[in-house]
Amino acid sequence: MTRVADILQFIETLAPANLKMDWDNVGLLCGSRNTPVTKILVALDPFEGVCKEAAAMEAELLVTHHPLIFRATKAITDDTSVGRSILTLCEHGISAINAHTNLDCAEGGVNDVLAARLGLEDIEVVLSHDGHSLLRMGDVPEQALEDFLSDVQCNLGCAGLRYVDGGKPVRKVAVGGGSCSDAILDALHAGCDTFVTADVRYNTFWDAHDLGINLIDAGHFATENPIVAVLAEKIAAAFPNVEVKISETHTDCMKYY
Q: Which helix (H) or strand (E) holds 43?
């Protein structure tokens, strides 16, 4: 019988916890290691709708990229979205596991998958100033920024892109799924002319403008969601007797007017 502990141990082989950032929260955040598992739901986020979906399919385990509990939680009530998610999982006996920044940094993780989705070749790790192996970089055939923007939007299914034109053709691209724009200098120092990430702040766009690097904000969901199918496939292959399903309800809630 497969148990939560078995899934947790397997995910640890894919994304070792020692790769996580110091501020992060990963692993088993709700439930019991001893719970038998016959059904798993995999999603990017453990939001309320996803937790209800897990309950509806009678899953014993929810596996996500983002953590169920991230910031300090002083109360678990139905007054907050986090509280509702936790209460739903507890009510239905569902455990919750996540791999966050450890999966971002891991080989074959979020950023390797993102780099491959964008067609980068000769993919390499970009070591950050603090030693984390977060970003990836690779080459694309030289092209105008406008052409690359079109490819990014098509390959990631983005509703829209925010970007700064650094005044250079696109040849060497760095990627960082989710909120990685603080690593713009790591991308620049690695020789990249283009950086694809998400959640870019106003001042960071101006940094890119003044430093002469193309900066593309493709959205948090779009840059990280490709890992979900890959993670589900790996879990299903390792545990053939467990039903593994990808969330059908979780989409990007942000719209563009």
A: strand 39-43
Q: Is residue 187 in a domain?
A: yes
Q: What is the pTM (predicted TM-score) of this model?
A: 0.95
Low-confidence ranges of the chain (pLDDT < 50): none
User: In the numeric block, which tokens belong to residue 80?
Assistant: 């907050």
Instruction: Evaluate whether residue 251 is within a structural domain.
Output: no
Instruction: For residue range 195-243, list pLDDT tens digits in order.
Output: 999 999 999 999 999 999 999 999 999 999 999 999 999 999 999 999 9
SS3 state at 79 = coil
**Rounded Cα gap, residues 103 and 204, in angstroms:** 25
Give how many domains the chain has, as a whole number.
2
- What is the predicted pLDDT for the residue at 163? 99
Question: Rounded to 10 degrees, what is the CA torsion of 30, 36, 37, 42?
Answer: 10
Same domain, 213 and 126: yes
- Rounded CA gap, 45 and 104, in Å? 14
Of how many residues is the chain composed?
257
Q: Rounded to whole angstroms, how far apart are CA atoms 15 and 216? A: 27
Residue 21, in any domain of the structure? yes
Q: Residue 17 domain-assigned?
A: yes
Residues 155 and 178 in one domain: yes
- CA-CA distance, 248 to 50, in Å (whole number)? 9
3-state secondary structure 140-190: EEEECHHHHHHHHHHHHCCCCCEEECCCCCEEEEEECCCCCHHHHHHHHHC
CA atoms within 13 A on the CB side of 153: 11
